[in-house]
Amino acid sequence: MSKTDFVPSGFIETLQDYMRERDLPAGGLLDAMDTELEAPYVSAQRFCELLESVWQLDSVTALGLRLGLSGQPRQFGVVGYMVSSCGTLGQALARYHRYQGLLQGGLASRARLHDGVLTMRWTQAVANTPLATEFSLAVFVSLCQALIGRPVTPLRAGLPFPRPDDVGIYEALLGCPVDFDCNSIELAIPAHLLALPISSKDPYLLRLLEQQAQALLNQQPRFDDDEVGPFFTRVQEQIVESMKNGDVSAETVAQALDCSLRTFYRQLSSAGYSYRGLLAHTRHTLARQYLADPALAQTDVALLLGYSEQSSFIRAFRSWTGMTPGEYRAHLAKNHVSAHA
Questions:
Q1: Structure confidence by residue, pLDDT tens digits, 272-303
Q2: Confidence of residue 17 (pLDDT cuts 50, 70, 90)
Q3: Which pLDDT score, from 0 to 100, does residue 1 have?
Q4: Cα–Cα distance between 153 and 295 in angstroms, integer?
Q5: pLDDT for 71
Q6: pLDDT at 229
Q7: Where in the chain is the domain with CATH 1.10.10.60?
Q8: Which residues face 43 on adjacent strands?
Protein backbone atom coordinates (compact mmCIF):
# COMPACT_ATOMS: atom_id res chain seq x y z
CA MET A 1 0.00 0.00 0.00
CA SER A 2 1.33 3.46 -0.87
CA LYS A 3 2.16 5.74 2.05
CA THR A 4 1.87 9.05 0.25
CA ASP A 5 -1.73 10.05 0.93
CA PHE A 6 -3.17 11.67 4.05
CA VAL A 7 -6.57 12.13 5.70
CA PRO A 8 -7.69 14.58 8.43
CA SER A 9 -6.53 13.29 11.81
CA GLY A 10 -9.86 14.39 13.34
CA PHE A 11 -11.38 11.16 12.04
CA ILE A 12 -9.36 9.35 14.72
CA GLU A 13 -11.66 10.89 17.34
CA THR A 14 -14.48 8.65 16.12
CA LEU A 15 -12.30 5.60 16.82
CA GLN A 16 -11.43 6.83 20.29
CA ASP A 17 -15.07 7.56 21.17
CA TYR A 18 -16.11 4.10 20.01
CA MET A 19 -13.40 2.39 22.06
CA ARG A 20 -14.41 4.28 25.18
CA GLU A 21 -18.13 3.67 24.68
CA ARG A 22 -17.52 -0.06 24.18
CA ASP A 23 -14.99 -0.13 27.03
CA LEU A 24 -12.51 -1.95 24.82
CA PRO A 25 -9.10 -2.98 26.23
CA ALA A 26 -7.13 -0.16 24.69
CA GLY A 27 -3.65 -0.81 26.06
CA GLY A 28 -1.50 1.94 24.54
CA LEU A 29 -3.73 2.39 21.50
CA LEU A 30 -5.57 5.45 22.82
CA ASP A 31 -2.27 7.12 23.65
CA ALA A 32 -0.97 6.35 20.16
CA MET A 33 -4.11 7.92 18.72
CA ASP A 34 -3.60 11.03 20.88
CA THR A 35 -0.14 11.39 19.37
CA GLU A 36 -1.57 11.25 15.85
CA LEU A 37 -4.14 13.91 16.76
CA GLU A 38 -1.37 16.41 17.48
CA ALA A 39 -1.04 16.99 13.72
CA PRO A 40 -3.94 18.01 11.43
CA TYR A 41 -3.32 15.05 9.10
CA VAL A 42 -2.45 11.39 9.47
CA SER A 43 -1.15 9.17 6.69
CA ALA A 44 -3.92 7.17 5.03
CA GLN A 45 -1.97 3.99 5.63
CA ARG A 46 -1.70 4.76 9.35
CA PHE A 47 -5.43 5.50 9.55
CA CYS A 48 -6.16 2.13 7.93
CA GLU A 49 -3.89 0.49 10.50
CA LEU A 50 -5.78 2.16 13.35
CA LEU A 51 -9.10 1.01 11.89
CA GLU A 52 -7.73 -2.52 11.75
CA SER A 53 -6.54 -2.28 15.37
CA VAL A 54 -10.03 -1.34 16.54
CA TRP A 55 -11.51 -4.20 14.50
CA GLN A 56 -9.10 -6.63 16.16
CA LEU A 57 -10.53 -5.53 19.51
CA ASP A 58 -14.17 -5.63 18.37
CA SER A 59 -14.68 -7.70 15.21
CA VAL A 60 -18.26 -6.70 14.49
CA THR A 61 -19.85 -6.60 11.06
CA ALA A 62 -19.81 -3.20 9.31
CA LEU A 63 -17.49 -1.66 11.91
CA GLY A 64 -16.43 1.04 9.44
CA LEU A 65 -20.03 2.16 9.02
CA ARG A 66 -20.60 2.23 12.78
CA LEU A 67 -17.53 4.41 13.26
CA GLY A 68 -18.19 6.75 10.35
CA LEU A 69 -21.79 7.46 11.32
CA SER A 70 -20.57 9.27 14.43
CA GLY A 71 -18.41 11.71 12.45
CA GLN A 72 -18.69 15.50 12.85
CA PRO A 73 -17.98 18.33 10.36
CA ARG A 74 -15.06 19.69 12.39
CA GLN A 75 -13.26 16.37 11.89
CA PHE A 76 -13.02 17.17 8.16
CA GLY A 77 -10.61 20.03 8.92
CA VAL A 78 -10.79 23.25 6.90
CA VAL A 79 -13.19 21.64 4.40
CA GLY A 80 -15.56 20.79 7.25
CA TYR A 81 -15.56 24.35 8.55
CA MET A 82 -16.09 25.64 5.03
CA VAL A 83 -19.12 23.49 4.22
CA SER A 84 -20.61 24.25 7.66
CA SER A 85 -20.57 27.94 6.70
CA CYS A 86 -22.59 27.41 3.50
CA GLY A 87 -26.24 28.33 3.15
CA THR A 88 -27.66 25.04 1.85
CA LEU A 89 -26.60 21.43 1.54
CA GLY A 90 -26.30 21.87 -2.23
CA GLN A 91 -23.82 24.72 -1.79
CA ALA A 92 -21.90 22.67 0.75
CA LEU A 93 -21.59 19.61 -1.50
CA ALA A 94 -20.47 21.78 -4.43
CA ARG A 95 -17.64 23.17 -2.32
CA TYR A 96 -16.82 19.75 -0.90
CA HIS A 97 -16.30 18.50 -4.44
CA ARG A 98 -14.33 21.58 -5.48
CA TYR A 99 -11.88 21.41 -2.57
CA GLN A 100 -11.66 17.65 -2.08
CA GLY A 101 -7.96 17.77 -2.94
CA LEU A 102 -7.39 19.58 0.35
CA LEU A 103 -9.25 16.83 2.19
CA GLN A 104 -7.52 13.80 0.71
CA GLY A 105 -5.04 13.93 -2.15
CA GLY A 106 -5.94 10.50 -3.49
CA LEU A 107 -9.68 11.17 -3.52
CA ALA A 108 -11.36 11.19 -6.94
CA SER A 109 -15.09 11.82 -7.11
CA ARG A 110 -17.87 12.57 -9.55
CA ALA A 111 -21.53 13.44 -9.15
CA ARG A 112 -24.60 13.25 -11.38
CA LEU A 113 -27.99 14.89 -10.89
CA HIS A 114 -30.75 13.12 -12.83
CA ASP A 115 -34.49 12.61 -12.36
CA GLY A 116 -34.52 14.01 -8.83
CA VAL A 117 -31.59 11.92 -7.63
CA LEU A 118 -28.03 13.01 -6.82
CA THR A 119 -25.63 10.11 -7.33
CA MET A 120 -22.06 10.39 -6.06
CA ARG A 121 -19.19 8.01 -6.73
CA TRP A 122 -15.66 8.23 -5.37
CA THR A 123 -12.47 6.23 -5.06
CA GLN A 124 -9.57 6.53 -2.62
CA ALA A 125 -6.10 5.73 -3.89
CA VAL A 126 -4.70 4.64 -0.52
CA ALA A 127 -7.51 4.38 2.05
CA ASN A 128 -9.16 1.59 0.05
CA THR A 129 -9.48 -1.27 2.54
CA PRO A 130 -13.03 -2.54 3.22
CA LEU A 131 -13.02 -0.87 6.65
CA ALA A 132 -11.77 2.43 5.20
CA THR A 133 -14.32 2.49 2.38
CA GLU A 134 -17.12 1.70 4.83
CA PHE A 135 -15.91 4.55 7.01
CA SER A 136 -15.69 6.98 4.09
CA LEU A 137 -19.25 6.26 2.99
CA ALA A 138 -20.68 6.55 6.49
CA VAL A 139 -18.76 9.67 7.53
CA PHE A 140 -20.00 11.44 4.39
CA VAL A 141 -23.59 10.55 5.28
CA SER A 142 -22.93 11.77 8.81
CA LEU A 143 -21.55 15.05 7.45
CA CYS A 144 -24.71 15.66 5.42
CA GLN A 145 -26.90 14.88 8.42
CA ALA A 146 -24.96 17.21 10.70
CA LEU A 147 -25.14 20.05 8.18
CA ILE A 148 -28.91 20.03 7.78
CA GLY A 149 -29.69 18.86 11.33
CA ARG A 150 -31.86 15.91 10.36
CA PRO A 151 -31.46 12.27 9.27
CA VAL A 152 -30.49 11.61 5.68
CA THR A 153 -31.98 8.42 4.26
CA PRO A 154 -30.08 7.47 1.10
CA LEU A 155 -31.90 5.87 -1.81
CA ARG A 156 -29.06 3.37 -2.27
CA ALA A 157 -25.38 2.87 -1.48
CA GLY A 158 -22.55 0.84 -2.95
CA LEU A 159 -19.23 -0.50 -1.65
CA PRO A 160 -16.22 -1.81 -3.61
CA PHE A 161 -15.69 -5.15 -1.91
CA PRO A 162 -17.37 -8.61 -2.02
CA ARG A 163 -20.85 -9.10 -0.63
CA PRO A 164 -20.67 -10.06 3.08
CA ASP A 165 -22.76 -12.74 4.71
CA ASP A 166 -24.95 -10.35 6.67
CA VAL A 167 -26.03 -7.61 4.26
CA GLY A 168 -28.95 -6.75 6.54
CA ILE A 169 -26.69 -4.95 9.02
CA TYR A 170 -25.36 -2.67 6.31
CA GLU A 171 -28.85 -1.84 5.10
CA ALA A 172 -30.11 -1.28 8.65
CA LEU A 173 -27.28 1.11 9.49
CA LEU A 174 -27.64 3.16 6.30
CA GLY A 175 -31.40 2.77 5.95
CA CYS A 176 -31.26 1.82 2.27
CA PRO A 177 -30.33 -1.03 -0.12
CA VAL A 178 -26.58 -1.59 -0.38
CA ASP A 179 -24.78 -3.05 -3.40
CA PHE A 180 -21.36 -4.69 -3.28
CA ASP A 181 -18.54 -5.44 -5.72
CA CYS A 182 -18.96 -1.90 -7.08
CA ASN A 183 -16.19 -0.10 -8.94
CA SER A 184 -16.31 2.76 -6.43
CA ILE A 185 -17.95 3.97 -3.24
CA GLU A 186 -21.46 5.04 -4.23
CA LEU A 187 -24.27 7.02 -2.65
CA ALA A 188 -27.60 8.22 -4.04
CA ILE A 189 -29.75 10.76 -2.17
CA PRO A 190 -32.96 12.62 -3.05
CA ALA A 191 -32.14 15.86 -4.86
CA HIS A 192 -34.64 17.87 -2.79
CA LEU A 193 -32.26 17.60 0.18
CA LEU A 194 -29.89 19.97 -1.62
CA ALA A 195 -32.21 22.89 -0.95
CA LEU A 196 -32.30 22.34 2.83
CA PRO A 197 -30.69 25.15 4.86
CA ILE A 198 -27.63 24.86 7.08
CA SER A 199 -28.20 26.51 10.47
CA SER A 200 -24.50 27.28 11.04
CA LYS A 201 -24.16 29.31 7.84
CA ASP A 202 -21.71 32.21 8.05
CA PRO A 203 -21.16 34.07 4.75
CA TYR A 204 -18.16 36.03 6.01
CA LEU A 205 -16.35 32.96 7.39
CA LEU A 206 -17.18 31.06 4.21
CA ARG A 207 -15.63 33.78 2.07
CA LEU A 208 -12.49 33.82 4.20
CA LEU A 209 -12.10 30.03 4.12
CA GLU A 210 -12.72 29.92 0.39
CA GLN A 211 -10.06 32.54 -0.18
CA GLN A 212 -7.59 30.45 1.76
CA ALA A 213 -8.52 27.18 0.06
CA GLN A 214 -8.60 28.65 -3.44
CA ALA A 215 -5.26 30.35 -2.94
CA LEU A 216 -3.69 27.04 -2.00
CA LEU A 217 -5.30 25.22 -4.91
CA ASN A 218 -4.17 27.93 -7.33
CA GLN A 219 -0.56 27.62 -6.30
CA GLN A 220 -0.43 23.83 -6.41
CA PRO A 221 2.04 22.68 -9.05
CA ARG A 222 1.55 19.57 -11.13
CA PHE A 223 3.91 16.68 -10.52
CA ASP A 224 4.58 13.59 -12.57
CA ASP A 225 5.90 11.83 -9.45
CA ASP A 226 2.97 10.26 -7.57
CA GLU A 227 4.82 10.57 -4.26
CA VAL A 228 5.93 14.20 -4.53
CA GLY A 229 2.49 15.66 -5.34
CA PRO A 230 0.58 14.51 -2.23
CA PHE A 231 3.58 15.35 -0.02
CA PHE A 232 3.76 18.90 -1.40
CA THR A 233 0.02 19.38 -0.81
CA ARG A 234 0.28 18.27 2.82
CA VAL A 235 3.25 20.54 3.45
CA GLN A 236 1.18 23.51 2.26
CA GLU A 237 -1.74 22.48 4.44
CA GLN A 238 0.51 22.03 7.47
CA ILE A 239 2.10 25.43 6.92
CA VAL A 240 -1.35 27.05 7.05
CA GLU A 241 -2.22 25.02 10.16
CA SER A 242 1.05 25.97 11.85
CA MET A 243 0.40 29.65 11.12
CA LYS A 244 -2.38 29.51 13.72
CA ASN A 245 0.19 28.76 16.42
CA GLY A 246 2.76 31.21 15.12
CA ASP A 247 5.39 28.49 14.62
CA VAL A 248 6.09 27.76 10.98
CA SER A 249 9.64 26.48 11.35
CA ALA A 250 10.68 23.61 9.10
CA GLU A 251 11.28 21.48 12.20
CA THR A 252 7.72 22.00 13.44
CA VAL A 253 6.12 21.34 10.05
CA ALA A 254 8.24 18.24 9.42
CA GLN A 255 7.47 16.85 12.88
CA ALA A 256 3.73 17.40 12.38
CA LEU A 257 3.98 15.41 9.13
CA ASP A 258 5.81 12.61 10.98
CA CYS A 259 8.81 13.15 8.72
CA SER A 260 12.51 13.52 9.54
CA LEU A 261 13.92 16.95 8.74
CA ARG A 262 16.38 15.40 6.31
CA THR A 263 13.63 13.57 4.39
CA PHE A 264 11.47 16.69 4.53
CA TYR A 265 14.14 18.82 2.84
CA ARG A 266 14.92 16.08 0.32
CA GLN A 267 11.29 15.73 -0.76
CA LEU A 268 10.90 19.48 -1.25
CA SER A 269 14.18 19.67 -3.13
CA SER A 270 13.04 16.94 -5.51
CA ALA A 271 10.00 19.12 -6.30
CA GLY A 272 12.28 22.07 -6.99
CA TYR A 273 11.43 24.00 -3.81
CA SER A 274 13.23 25.17 -0.70
CA TYR A 275 11.21 25.36 2.51
CA ARG A 276 11.97 29.05 2.95
CA GLY A 277 10.80 29.75 -0.59
CA LEU A 278 7.62 27.69 -0.19
CA LEU A 279 6.77 29.39 3.10
CA ALA A 280 7.26 32.84 1.59
CA HIS A 281 5.25 31.90 -1.50
CA THR A 282 2.37 30.58 0.64
CA ARG A 283 2.37 33.66 2.86
CA HIS A 284 2.54 36.00 -0.13
CA THR A 285 -0.37 34.25 -1.86
CA LEU A 286 -2.57 34.30 1.24
CA ALA A 287 -1.56 37.87 2.15
CA ARG A 288 -2.91 39.16 -1.16
CA GLN A 289 -6.17 37.29 -0.57
CA TYR A 290 -6.57 38.58 2.98
CA LEU A 291 -5.63 42.19 2.20
CA ALA A 292 -8.28 42.26 -0.53
CA ASP A 293 -10.89 41.77 2.21
CA PRO A 294 -11.58 45.21 3.82
CA ALA A 295 -13.18 43.51 6.84
CA LEU A 296 -9.77 42.19 7.95
CA ALA A 297 -7.50 44.60 9.81
CA GLN A 298 -3.84 44.57 8.86
CA THR A 299 -2.99 43.20 12.32
CA ASP A 300 -5.44 40.35 11.74
CA VAL A 301 -3.74 39.52 8.44
CA ALA A 302 -0.35 39.38 10.15
CA LEU A 303 -1.67 36.98 12.79
CA LEU A 304 -3.39 34.78 10.20
CA LEU A 305 -0.05 34.43 8.42
CA GLY A 306 1.76 33.41 11.59
CA TYR A 307 3.63 36.65 12.33
CA SER A 308 3.92 37.53 16.01
CA GLU A 309 4.76 41.14 15.15
CA GLN A 310 3.14 43.32 12.50
CA SER A 311 6.51 44.91 11.66
CA SER A 312 7.83 41.52 10.48
CA PHE A 313 4.83 41.14 8.20
CA ILE A 314 5.31 44.64 6.77
CA ARG A 315 8.99 43.98 6.00
CA ALA A 316 8.20 40.64 4.36
CA PHE A 317 5.36 42.05 2.27
CA ARG A 318 7.54 44.92 1.06
CA SER A 319 10.20 42.40 -0.03
CA TRP A 320 7.57 40.49 -2.06
CA THR A 321 5.78 43.39 -3.70
CA GLY A 322 7.88 46.53 -3.28
CA MET A 323 5.11 48.17 -1.24
CA THR A 324 3.74 48.00 2.30
CA PRO A 325 0.43 46.22 3.06
CA GLY A 326 -1.19 49.63 3.49
CA GLU A 327 0.11 50.82 0.13
CA TYR A 328 -1.09 47.59 -1.48
CA ARG A 329 -4.60 48.13 -0.09
CA ALA A 330 -4.58 51.71 -1.35
CA HIS A 331 -3.53 50.41 -4.77
CA LEU A 332 -6.42 47.92 -4.75
CA ALA A 333 -8.88 50.62 -3.73
CA LYS A 334 -7.64 52.96 -6.48
CA ASN A 335 -8.00 50.25 -9.12
CA HIS A 336 -11.47 49.43 -7.83
CA VAL A 337 -12.56 53.08 -8.16
CA SER A 338 -11.05 53.34 -11.66
CA ALA A 339 -12.80 50.17 -12.77
CA HIS A 340 -16.19 51.59 -11.70
CA ALA A 341 -15.65 55.16 -12.87
A1: 778 888 888 888 888 887 888 776 778 778 87
A2: very high
A3: 38
A4: 40
A5: 94
A6: 61
A7: 219-339
A8: 6
Higher pLDDT, 108 or 101: 108
Q: What dihedral do alpha carbons 209, 210, 215, 220 form, nearest 10°?
A: 100
Q: Which residues of the chain form CATH 3.90.1520?
A: 6-195
On whether the CB atoms of residues 161 and 130 are closer than 8 A, the answer is yes
Of residues 228 and 122, which shows the higher confidence score? Answer: 122
Task: Report if pTM > 0.85.
Answer: no
CB-CB contact of 10 with 74 (8 Å): yes
Lowest mean pLDDT among 99-113, 148-162, 174-188: 99-113
Domain 6-195 CATH assignment equals 1.10.8 = no
- Higher-confidence residue of 293 and 178: namely 178
* Beta-bridge mates of residue 111: 120
Residue 107 one-letter amino acid? L
| pLDDT at residue number 341 | 54
Residue 35's identity, in one-letter code, is T
* Domain spanning 219-339: CATH 1.10.10.60: yes
The burial of 284, by beta-carbon neighbours within 10 Å (0-12 exposed, 13-18 middle, 19 or more buried), is given as: middle
List of residues 6+ apart from 141 with CB closer than 8 A: 68, 69, 152, 154, 174, 187
